[in-house]
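Support request from a user on the community tier.

User writes: "When I paste my C-alpha cells into the form, the page sometimes reloads and wipes my input. The last time it worked, I copied everything first. Here is what I submitted, just in case something in the input itself triggers the reload:"
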C-alpha cells in the first residue's frame, strides 16, 4: 500500500511506475543501485520499463538516477554524480587519479570532462576500463596515494594533492590545470613536492606541460575566475598586479583581487557564484557596492569581470589597457 496526495492508501498493484519507483528509491539518495531497487521490491522488468519510458537514467551498469533529479542538475553536478556512480558500483579498490581525484579532494573543476579517471600499474591489475572510465597505466609511488573516507563512510584510494595536480597538468588544458593547482596550493599542496615529482618524470608524456602549469600557479588566487583572469593579465605587456593586497580606506581594510597601486586600478572578478552556484545575498551585494563607492571616492578605478567576459580575452585586455592609457594621459596633462 502507498499513500496518495489525497491521503488515501493505494494498493501496490494500482501504483503508477513513477510512484513505485519513488517509493523504492533510497531516502535522500540521488543514486540507487540495482541491488537497492531490487531489495525494495522492484524486479528486473520494472527497472527495464522505467528505463524504457524515461523515468530513470542508467549512469553506468548497476547505478541509476531518477530522470527528474538528473534534469535538475547542472553539468558539473552531473559529472560529480557520474563519479559517485562509479564509487558505489566498482569492484575492487581502484586508485582515483587526475580529475576524479581533484573532485574527491574538493578542488575547483572547470571543463575537465565527465569521465572517471583511475590509475593502475597495468591493465591486468583488476581495474576495469568501461566506456565511462579513463584508465592510466603507470607506476605510482607509495607516497603518491592516500586513503580518504567519504561522507558515506566509504574508504577510497586517491592520489595525493600534489600528484593530482601534476597528473592534471600533464594531460589537461593549461587554464583548467592552473585552476586545479591554484586551489590545491590553498588547500596545502606543497610546491616543492610537485616540482620534485616533475623532475623525476623526465622523458614522460606531458612533463613540459606540467612545468608550464607549475610555473603559473599562485595560491593567492581564491577562485577559478580569479585564476583565469590572472592568466589573461599575465600575457599582457604591462606591470603585473598585486593579488589580494590589503588597502586601508576610511579605517576599513579591503582585499581586492588585482591591484595596480601606481595606476590606482582594481580588477575584480564577480562571476564565480554564477558558474559554481554560489549565490550572494542582498546584504553581501549591498556591502560590495558600499565598499566600491568608498574606494572610488579614494581615487581608485575599477574593472569588473564576469565569466562571460573571460570568453573574450581580447576585450578584457582592452578594458584594462584603457585605464592604463587614461592614467598616462592624465599624468601627461
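"...and here is what came back when it finally went through:"
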Amino acid at each position: 500500500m502507498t499513500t496518495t496526495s489525497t491521503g488515501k492508501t493505494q494498493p501496490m498493484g494500482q501504483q503508477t511506475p513513477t510512484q513505485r519507483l519513488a517509493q523504492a528509491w533510497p531516502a535522500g539518495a540521488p543514486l540507487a543501485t540495482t541491488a537497492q531497487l531490487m531489495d525494495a521490491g522492484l524486479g528486473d522488468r520494472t527497472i527495464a520499463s522505467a528505463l524504457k519510458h524515461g523515468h530513470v537514467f542508467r549512469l553506468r551498469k548497476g547505478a541509476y538516477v531518477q530522470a527528474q533529479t538528473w534534469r535538475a542538475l547542472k553539468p558539473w553536478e552531473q559529472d560529480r554524480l557520474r563519479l559517485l556512480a562509479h564509487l558505489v558500483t566498482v569492484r575492487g579498490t581502484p586508485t582515483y587519479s587526475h580529475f576524479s581525484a581533484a573532485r574527491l579532494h574538493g578542488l575547483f573543476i572547470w571543463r575537465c570532462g565527465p569521465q572517471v579517471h583511475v590509475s593502475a600499474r597495468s591493465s591486468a591489475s583488476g581495474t576495469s576500463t568501461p566506456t565511462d572510465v579513463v584508465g592510466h597505466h603507470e607506476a605510482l609511488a607509495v607516497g603518491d596515494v592516500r586513503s580518504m573516507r567519504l561522507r558515506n563512510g566509504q574508504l577510497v584510494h586517491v592520489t595525493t594533492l600534489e600528484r593530482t595536480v601534476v597528473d592534471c597538468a600533464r594531460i589537461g588544458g593549461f587554464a583548467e590545470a592552473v585552476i586545479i593547482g591554484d586551489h590545491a596550493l590553498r588547500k596545502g599542496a606543497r610546491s616543492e613536492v610537485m616540482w620534485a615529482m616533475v623532475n623525476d618524470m623526465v622523458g614522460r608524456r606531458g612533463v613540459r606541460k606540467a612545468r608550464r602549469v607549475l610555473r603559473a600557479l599562485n595560491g593567492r588566487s581564491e577562485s577559478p575566475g580569479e585564476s583565469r583572469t590572472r592568466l589573461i593579465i599575465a600575457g599582457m605587456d604591462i606591470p603585473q598586479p598585486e593579488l589580494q593586497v590589503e588597502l586601508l580606506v576610511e579605517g576599513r581594510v579591503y582585499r581586492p583581487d588585482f591591484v595596480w597601486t601606481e595606476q590606482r586600478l582594481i580588477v575584480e572578478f564577480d562571476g564565480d557564484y554564477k558558474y559554481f552556484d554560489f549565490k550572494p545575498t542582498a546584504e553581501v551585494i549591498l556591502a560590495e557596492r558600499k565598499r566600491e563607492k568608498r574606494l572610488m571616492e579614494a581615487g581608485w578605478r575599477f574593472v569588473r569581470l564576469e565569466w562571460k567576459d573571460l570568453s573574450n580575452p581580447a576585450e578584457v585586455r582592452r578594458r584594462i589597457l584603457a585605464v592604463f592609457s587614461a592614467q598616462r594621459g592624465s599624468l601627461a596633462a
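Agent notes: The reload is a front-end session timeout and is unrelated to the input. The mean pLDDT is 88. The longest strand covers residues 56-60. Escalated to web team.
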